[in-house]
Description:
The complex is a heterodimer. By secondary structure, chain A is of the alpha/beta class. In chain A, about 40% of the residues lie in helices and about 25% in strands. Chain A is built from 13 helices and 18 strands. In chain A, the strands form 4 sheets. In chain A, strands 3, 4, 5, 6, 7, 8, 9 and 16 form an 8-stranded mixed β-sheet that branches. A 5-stranded mixed β-sheet of chain A has the order 13-15-14-17-18, sandwiched between helices. Chain A has a two-stranded antiparallel ribbon with strand order 1-11. Chain B is of the alpha/beta class. Chain B has helices spanning about 30-45, 60-65, 80-90, 100-105, 110-115, 160-170, 180-195, 210-215, 220-230, 265-275; strands at about 50-55, 70, 95-100, 120-125, 175-180, 200-205, 230-235, 250-255. Chain B has an 8-stranded mixed β-sheet with strand order 2-1-3-4-6-5-8-7, with helices on both faces. In chain B, α4 (about 100-105) crosses α5 (about 110-115). β12 (about 235-240) of chain A pairs parallel with β2 (about 70) of chain B.
Amino acid sequence: MSNANSSGVLTGSHYLDGDHACSEGAIAAGCRFAAGYPITPSTEVVERIAARFPRVGGRFLQFEDELGASIALLGGAWGGAKAMTVTSGPGFSLMMEHIGYAAITETPCVYINVQRAGPSTGLPTQPAQGDMMQARFGSHGDYRLIALCPNSPQECFDLTVEAFNLAEEFRVPVLVMLDEVVGHMTEKVVIPPAGEIPVSPRRWTKKAPGEFKLFEPAEGSLVPEMTMPGEGHQIHVTGLTHDERGYPNMTIAAHEKMQRRLFDKIVLNADRIVKWEEKDLAGAEVVVVSYGITSRVAEKAIQAAKEKGVKVGSFRLITAWPFPEKQILEMSTKVKAFVVPELNLGQMSLEIERVVGGRCKTVGVPHVGGTVHKPEVILNAILEAVR
Amino acid sequence: MSAAVRENPADKYLRKERMPSIWCPGCGIGTTVNCFTRALDASGYDLEKVAVVSGIGCTGRVAGYLKLDSFHTTHGRAIPFATGLKLARPDLKVVVYSGDGDLSAIGGNHLIHAARRNADLLVVCVNNLTYGMTGGQVTPTTPQPAIASTTPYGAFEQSFNLPHLVASCGGVYVARWTAYHVRQIAKSMGEALQKKGFRFIEIIAPCPTLYLRRNKLGEGLDEMKFYQEKSVVMNGADTREVSLDFRDEIPVGKFVDIERPTLEEAMESQLSKALGAKYVPYSLPVKA
């Protein structure tokens, strides 16, 4: 870990929306290549990038569609730059193929999705959290990646930096899953001095050409080091199942070896990746599990429930994927119920149910999106759950 | 005493450990790769600074056989990957090597926009008039009324005139040859490698296993004879006049060779004009 390059960092107190905070987070993290295609409610991220990049030595290009944008950033990333793209709803669907390509080629990169209500064109300017399972499994085939869920403009900044760091550490695409409200809400954002922003540089190999294998995990790790073109390594990168040199290998054994490691490098490192925020878990009878804007609404319901004498705690998912299984499992032996409000008809609540395995109740508080929950609905679910 | 076996000059450009290739006997793709290695050889370029990007399909496998930094990307998306790579790494020469279906059907949108914005890429399009990898389906370049597995009663759509498509979108170098024209291909590739901007070379190539067989047109060698007989060199021709019809004459040659600012040049010039001293130009990624 080193620190951000001071030249691009907008140190100070700002009044920013979540989208713009993501742009600043990317710049602070060292992102100097971005590809985009406009789509509401994510466009402000690339608009700010387009305005800021030429002043900090970055390159941004708006592509002809999301298919182009979502692979152009991978070209940029393989070129050696820290790279990202940004989208929402239908654009996220179009980008799925390249999230899979980034996963199999172990390309460090960041995709930001400002979620709107769907399916299809849905409600373009209104919020939802309906892409959480798509974030996990949206591309075909099996793979694991990392998805983060900010609940404020400040966290949009912080988690975008974190997303770039995780992408480098695990050579994996990292998704930053905003929702429209978090993307468009304006709050105070404090950007620290560059020297206080931890930034993970790319893990360049020191091995010589001929010695280095692009897909061989570094010693004592599940993650290979990186190189870039132009250095004599004659790298080969393919979306086909490949061996450690990157050469296509159409055997079951090669597939098992490759796919297993892609899975393990995330799942077995969950403890290093997973972040959450907990409040008042000690002695709680009910724990509200929430993320993104829903966690802000849930706070009011939790407060109201406490005033009614309910012992209620809060567990906020900062990392959605890999899922904080261990933490949920541990709580499930102590509480009566989890209450899970989300702006979809039940996605993360399914995961909680799976982990809980009947040890306690899981009470979903579904909402189709378009707006946020009324706190009373969440309050009623808490009161119901504790009964 | 037997004569010493001379090394094939193409060898040093190939990942020999990956041979034999997947290409069928009589296929034209390998021929074009041979020409490409000759063009590279003649260019004197530092091969460390040449990267190849392919899409999916038979020609999409070219990246995997060339001993260069090489990227085998997704179907249709070699051009935007390459555009990203080139923008991030202006020090590299980036060559896109792919097939007609990959570049002009699923990747058609990227093809026209990369030509429009004059992305600094050399695109080699091996046009075998069919989707080979999936078993010989109709493509946007299959001429009427050729038989393909998905047009079993004959193709009925108008096919693309790729040189015209690329030229009208703004490509700065546009040429077409057939796999018969090995010297001309190598020369054209060499010339195009020296140029900047969006350069497009179409190479008509035989697919004996699917296209030729299904249309009862003989073997790869028969097709070479056909190319020899039917090709008409039309250097500088108006690209509207170079469309391909089924078994008709094949207009070949260099059709376009012009200059205009590349994407990168236009981007830099506009930003520096607008921002003046506030403009911070992009610098190459460095290893921290």
